[in-house]
Structure formats: structure tokens, C-alpha cells
Design goal:
transcription, WCX_dom, DNA-binding, Arc Repressor Mutant, subunit A, 42% helix, disordered N terminus, 11 helices, SH3 type barrels, 24% strand, 324 residues
Length: 324
């Protein structure tokens, strides 16, 4: 019990140090609320951090708080082998999708600071969990677009491309790229579009012929505390409604893959239903159709009709034969 308590305290102390590295100064009450301890405990933690040789400064007055001496940086000795393993694992997942020599060099640097005696154990731990964001098949076209966008961001220059939106409308765009976003196994560029005079999210797969221009731009201040690319989906999420899907023996594995074993309700032998909340949009229609002929929409009734209509339209495309 004592060992567990000490570990919690050490984790809290390290977490406080990392937070202070990220922020100029923090109120003691904010720290107390964050870690669910008393303000007195926070001041004891600050004293312990100071005794460990980390220069903590307490500022008085209305805009006071707790901070670190200006210019202080975290020393390698503060990182455990487990910390480095987690960093390496994160870098490996980035490498699988972004690639490039810089990430590989950084991986080698982190791995090189592991003592020789612990290399084998470190390799075992690092291989226990692998995140691979890369897609199946040829990724050359997407990698080429990623390279162009990264180049434009690093040089603070606009990138021009042809864009085809979900409705099939083709436009020419010249945007200020700020952030590459990997979401739902798809790459997006969060960029300021001068034509629309606002930030927009562009899907890489819908871009063609990207070119880094000679036009420079000044990066705008952005707050990522609330991820701006989630706003549209969050608005859609407020309009979700429950869908009930029916699966049989042949499609049960699909239900388990997408929704988890615990979501299945067995109605009769070999027949299962899953109730899931979805915003009703083109993505939802496509997702349901992608589940195949062994999945049936039970509710709502209008969704049954919509999927039936779309399935009939798909079938009609094949009735006249390949010549048509």
C-alpha cells in the first residue's frame, strides 16, 4: 500500500514538472483541483520538487502563481526507460504514416541513450505494442502529397492544388497550410483559405497536383485546446439518433469488429441486434451498405427505406450487363 502511494506521489510530482514546463505559471488551486489533493499537499509537492534540484519559483500578487526559472529544461535523467519506450512507440507510429529521414534519425537518437545492459529488455517492451497508421497497398500518391504539404508548412508558403469535394465540385485552391491531421485513418490539411476567408479542412485524397508556391504567409495563432476540426462532427453528433442493425451468423464478426462483443443482443438463435447512435448522413448510408447483404436495418423505418432505395439503384447499375 505504501509503495503504491509513493508511486502515485512520484507520478504526480513528474506530472507537475511537465505541466510547469508547458505553462509560464500555474495557480496552486488549479493544481490542487487537477490532482484532487489539498493546496497544502501541492505546496509540499513544490517543496519536494525544489529539493530535487528543479528551480521552482513562486510569484506573489494578483497574477502570481507557481512557475519554473526561465530557461530551465528537463534533463535526460528525469526520463525513465519506460518513458523513453513510450516516446519511441509514439515515434514509430508517426513514422508508419509520415515517414521521412528526420523521424528515423530521432528514433535512433532515443534508442541510443538506452544503456547496453538494458537494450534487449527495451527492445522487447518497444515491440509489445505497435501502432501502424499506414494504409494497405500503394501509398505513393498520398506520400507525395504529404511531402508537398510538409514542405509548404516548413517554408511558410502557400500550397496550390485542385480540389474535388464530396459533391463532385472541382475548384482551384491556394491555401495557407497550418496543420496536418490524421483522423479516422485519413489525412487532412487544416489551412486558411483566402477565397473563403476562414480556416477549412481539406482531405488529402481529394487533392490533386499540389504545388508549393512562392507566396509566403505569416502563421496565425491557433488554439488546439478544442480541436477545430472536431467542430463540424460535434455539431453533427448533436443530431444523432439510434439505429438498430440486425446481424446473422455470417455477419456477426462485423458487429463484433465495429461495436464490440458486449454490444450484441441475441434475439433468436443466430440473430443479433446492435443499437448504435449515428448522425444520419452520407457517411452513415455508405457505412451500412459496406456491411453487406447479411446486415439489415431494423429501425428507424425511414432509414430502411433509404438503404433499400440505394441498394436498388446499385443493383440497377448491373442489370443491363457490362456493355452499358
Amino acid at each position: 500500500m505504501v509503495k503504491g502511494f509513493e508511486k502515485m506521489k512520484i507520478d504526480r510530482l513528474l506530472s507537475i514538472v511537465i505541466l510547469l514546463l508547458q505553462r509560464n505559471r500555474v495557480q496552486a488551486k488549479e493544481l490542487a483541483d487537477k490532482y484532487e489533493v489539498s493546496i497544502r499537499t501541492i505546496y509540499r509537492d513544490i517543496e519536494a520538487i525544489s529539493m530535487a534540484g528543479i528551480p521552482v519559483v513562486t510569484f506573489q500578487g494578483a497574477n502570481g502563481g507557481i512557475g519554473l526559472m526561465e530557461g530551465y529544461r528537463l534533463d535526460r535523467s528525469m526520463l525513465t526507460d519506460l518513458d523513453i519506450k513510450d516516446i519511441v512507440m509514439g515515434l514509430q507510429s508517426i513514422s508508419s504514416s509520415l515517414g521521412g529521414p528526420n523521424v528515423s534519425r530521432l528514433l535512433n537518437k532515443f534508442e541510443s541513450i538506452i544503456p547496453e545492459s538494458g537494450r534487449e529488455q527495451f527492445s522487447v517492451r518497444a515491440a509489445q505494442f505497435i501502432v501502424d497508421h499506414s494504409g494497405w497497398g500503394n501509398q505513393a500518391a498520398q506520400e507525395g502529397k504529404l511531402i508537398k504539404v510538409k514542405e509548404a508548412m516548413s517554408q511558410a508558403r502557400t500550397v496550390a492544388f485542385t480540389y474535388r469535394n464530396a459533391e463532385g465540385i472541382i475548384t482551384k485552391r491556394d491555401v495557407e497550410p497550418h496543420t496536418l491531421v490524421l483522423k479516422g485513418q485519413q489525412w487532412f490539411v487544416y489551412a486558411y483559405c483566402s477565397d473563403r476567408e476562414q480556416f477549412r479542412l481539406f482531405k488529402l485524397s481529394r487533392m490533386s497536383d499540389p504545388v508549393v508556391t512562392e507566396t509566403a504567409f505569416t502563421r496565425k495563432d491557433l488554439s488546439y485546446e478544442i480541436l477545430p476540426w472536431n467542430e463540424g462532427r460535434m455539431a453533427a453528433a448533436r443530431a444523432v439518433q439510434p439505429f438498430t442493425l440486425q446481424f446473422n451468423r455470417n455477419s456477426r464478426h462485423l458487429a463484433e469488429d465495429w461495436f464490440g462483443v458486449e454490444a450484441l443482443i441475441e434475439q433468436t438463435e443466430g440473430i443479433y441486434t446492435v443499437s448504435v447512435p449515428f448522425p444520419e448522413d452520407a457517411w452513415a448510408y455508405g457505412f451500412i451498405l459496406s456491411l453487406g447483404p447479411d446486415v439489415v436495418v431494423k429501425e428507424p423505418a425511414h432509414l430502411r427505406d433509404k438503404i433499400r432505395e440505394m441498394a436498388l439503384r446499385i443493383a440497377s447499375n448491373y442489370e443491363a450487363g457490362p456493355e452499358s
